[in-house]
C-alpha cells in the first residue's frame, strides 16, 4: 500500500491511473488542436475564403494556446493542477458543439481561438502535476507516455476529421470529436487522483516574469528557442498546405485519402525515444544536426510527382523533425541553470509561434509560387539557421558552446 507521504512509482496502481488519465487527455487535446488541418481546402470552398484565410482556423487556435500557456500556467501554479486539466477538456469540447451551428467563418475562427486558449490548460498543468506526484525514478516513463500521446492525438485528429468529412461532413466530424471528448472527460474525472503534493505559489507575477527575462538574456537559450520556431515553421508549413497540393494535379486525391498521409506522424512516436538513445551514444549535437538534415531531405522529397516518393518524403520528414525537436527540447533543460519551468514554458511558446507562422504566413507564398516555392523556402530555412548560428559563433569572439 502506497504511503501518503510518498510519490507514486511505476509499480503503484495510482501511477498508472495518473499516466493513463493524462495520456487520454493529451490525446484529445492534440486531436482538437490539429483536427482542422486536413479541412482547410473544405473551408475555402464552403466559406469562400482564400487558403491564407482558411489557415487561420489553425493558426488562431495556436495564438489562443500561446496566450493560455502563459496565463493558465501562472494560475495553475496558484490554484492547482487537476482543476485546469479538467477545465481544459471541457473548454475544448464546447466549441466542437457550437462551431457546426455557425455559418460565419469569422465566428468559426473566434471559437477556435477560444478553444486554443482552453487547450493550454493541459500542457500548462500536466507536466508539473507529473513532477509533483510521480516518483523521480518513474517520471521518465510517465513523461514519455504523455508526449507519445501528443503525437498520436495529433495524428488521429487529422485522420478522423479527414475521413469523416469526406464520407459525411465536417460538422459530423466535429460532433464526433465532441463525443470522444466527453467520454475522455468522464474517464479522466473518475481516474485522475487529487494532487497530494501541490504547494500554491504565492510569489507575485513580476517574480515569474523575472524568470522569463533571465532566460531571454541567455544567448544560448535564445538560439534554442529560435531553432524551436524554425523547425516547427518548416514542419507546419509542409503539413498545412499538403492537402491543397495533393488535391491538385497530378494526384487528385480525395480528402479521406489525404488524411491517411498523417499516419506518417507515427514515426514521431519512434523518432523521439530513438533520438534520445542515439544522443547518449554519439552526442546531442551530432544527432540533432542529423535530424535537421533528414528533415530537410524529407521536405525536398515531396517535390516528386510520384505519390510513393511523396509519402516516403513525409515519413522521412517526420522522423527528422521529431528527432531534432525532441533533442532541441532536451537542450533547454541542459542550458537553463535556474527557473527551469519558465525555460520549458518559453520553449513551448517558441514552438507554437512556429506552428502559427508556418500555418498562416506562408499562405501568400503558396498562392503565388505554389508547392515548389513553398518547399524551397521551408526546406532551406532549418539548414540556413544552423549555418548562421555556426558563423555567428565563429565571428562573435565568444567561446563556442559545446552543444552547437
From TrEMBL:
Compartments (UniProt record): Cell membrane
Keyword Membrane: yes
Family of this protein: Belongs to the major facilitator superfamily.
Keyword Membrane attributed: yes
Membrane topology: Multi-pass membrane protein
Location, primary (coarse class): membrane
InterPro entries attached to this UniProt entry: MFS, MFS_dom, MFS_trans_sf
CDD domains cross-referenced by the UniProt entry: MFS_NepI_like (cd17324)
Occurrences of domain Major facilitator superfamily (MFS) profile (ranges): 18-394
Transmembrane regions: 14-36, 56-76, 83-99, 105-129, 141-160, 172-192, 223-242, 262-282, 289-322, 368-393
UniProt KW keywords: Cell membrane, Membrane, Transmembrane, Transmembrane helix, Transport
Protein name: MFS transporter
